[in-house]
């Protein structure tokens, strides 16, 4: 099973800012900033020292992956800015994504195959939100942003062989319509057909912050099906056109 660290990519283009503090470790400052900003308790999962390592770059700023202590499924990124006195984070996007996931759970479950896993992510540019919106619901946020967000439903369908996509196409189409009805300008469904023996729970938990696609997952993936708002998906029969088999 892939270690959780292997999935993490700091998606730092969708973050908001805040003030740091001096005389403490970066991890301590990150936690203090998060807890003062959102009045919640958080845990840091992994800190990357700038200038090398897994997330190496020319910047010496430190960045990390964190989660809400009361709900480890709300996983997000936080980064120390170049001046090392402030931070950016994507907590609200992660929280709104989980809120939308919970809101759509009953409807989604009607169309999800048995033994499948799913997550919903929400992305927006930094100018669309800030910490003053902490009390807004996901619906309020989407309305406030005039729908200028990207909503993605990520589904792992467990199977023991190469799938007959036509058996799933109608249900996948219904899931696509469900996400389409969220009223965001951009929406997508990403389905991976994964061997039922492989445990990808960590991958799914970290889907908002990872950079691992279905093709590169450390698991047996039979194929991928991606739908989005730029395609002409008008009925379930057209869904199969977007399936791509992954060669062994």
From TrEMBL:
PROSITE patterns assigned: PROKAR_LIPOPROTEIN
Protein name: Lipoprotein
Native species: Evansella cellulosilytica (strain ATCC 21833 / DSM 2522 / FERM P-1141 / JCM 9156 / N-4) (Bacillus cellulosilyticus)
Species lineage: Bacteria, Bacillati, Bacillota, Bacilli, Bacillales
